[in-house]
Amino acid sequence: MKRVYPDTNRFRQIIRGRIRQNLKRFITRGEILGKQGKNFVSIPLPQIEIPRFRYGLQETGGVGQGPGEEGTPIGNVLPQPGEGQGAGSMPGEHLLEVDVTLEELAKILGEELELPNILPKGQRNIDTFTDRYTGIHRTGPESLRHFKRTFKQALKRQIMAGLYNPEDPVILPIQEDKRFRASKSKAVPDSSAVIIYMMDVSGSMGNEQKDIVRIESFWIDTWLKSQYRDLDTRYIVHDAVAREVDRHTFFHLRESGGTKISSAFTLCRDVVQKDYDPNTWNIYPIHFSDGDNWGGDDTALCMKILKEFLIPWSNLFCYGQVKSAYGSGQFLKDLMEEFSSEERLVVSEINSRDDIYRSIKTFLGKGK
């Protein structure tokens, strides 16, 4: 069976290459989001020929039989493309679905977009110790006694002492026969991160805008999960008022109402203060909006919250402005004017699905 390993690895490399070639299409179309498992996704890949046997038609004759001149291709005995039964005259395209782990998908994303590995703050220099029972000791608590090792040791001792009777195989371990599981502590670097997604769900944010946010957040999640052992995700929606919701509600809430972006920033600040110590957590607030905010006073309040709380607390604060037919787009201009030299604030303008690919690289290319 080991002979098949090189072929298997070669096939995996082919699959990996095809995913990289089509990565931008996968990202912009979002076709794999509905095929997620717990730790993998199914990706449809066209134009990969799977080796298989092909059988000729019955009663076509054996080797060297039937009409034909020397040099006639033997493939003529096989059905020609488009000659299958049923309606239609053109060959179809067959897709192969392959399962790819999210870890592998994150590697491909990082290589293709040339994303740097993230250097987490806070607990990156702190080690947690995990215990694994990989050894055997002669002493220990009865709860950790290794039954099989103890039995074998008692059996060996009784045979050597001539006390073992095959007709009455009673094994009685004594204290010196007992063996116990022993743990070994291993230091594991500990780092934790939280993504706080915020989205404007006012009347100007339609289904297309929410689909763009959904696609981009999937790829951001995939990359950050490859960088952190523990990752929390929180969701905030807002129109004139903000509230925290679950993931399904975040992407399917019906849009309505006006817009006060400060309501989302205020709630985000409260969530961080309550649950995530900025000294030990890697914090990634990401806000999506069409850039239409209610009044200059609310925008001024947003800038104050960003300057005093959210940006100092965050590894990176990301703002994605999704174009809509009704949004003014002014908020992005205000951010760039207020924080023109702030490295921890990253903004991206997303005019259509084609811009998702570039936006992801803009957000994650800082390596923070």
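Above is the first protein from milestone M3; the second protein from the same milestone is given next.
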Amino acid sequence: MPGVKVAASTVWEILREAGIDPAPERTSSTWADFLRSQADALPACDFFETVTLTGARLYVFAVIEHAGRRIRILGATAHPTASWMAQATKNLVMDLEDAGLRVRFLIRDRDGKFPALFDAVLADAGIEVVLSGVRTPRMNAVMERWVQTCRRELLDRTLIWDQRHLLHALREFERFYNVHRPHQGIANARPLNPLPPPIVDPDQIACLEVRRRDRLGGLLHAYEHAA
């Protein structure tokens, strides 16, 4: 009808008439963007528990690096007290400094076993704690994946006698995981042992020998070229 303004027919036009950009640029980053941008020096940590043959419940504290997949098992205890956590955290900070890593953030969940002193020790070292969401294990997926690997390849196949036996098994698995076990997430390399150059010479391939070294009574197998 003449003299009557026709109403805007789309949301786009309504926003434009109101002076609002209908396609604003996103300024906030996603969780995936954060992980990619900080992966080179981004560790994540978690507790997981296991039970000995005597029924004692032990808690294992471990840290993993996102980029290189290096694992650090900081200890196991039946009582993760604030003082025990503080000492484990100090050991972690010293280990990261010795490795030359300039860590800015560390991911952890909201488990009550992490005392305020844990965050305070890291803050003194210039490391900010980033909390994962409530009941959102995918926000700490790299750490959760390693816990599953440790259970599947070690703990579910081992009868643990006591804390000393557990620590011995975990230390062996830590060395195996960091030095010998290939990881698909880093192109089948090892965190502390780069892949050897490929062998393309047919004569070398024909006489190639592989030596196997067993760990933990044959539970783990490490393969290497024979000299």
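Note on the second protein: The helical segments are 11-17, 31-38, 82-98, 116-124, 141-153, 163-179, 202-206.
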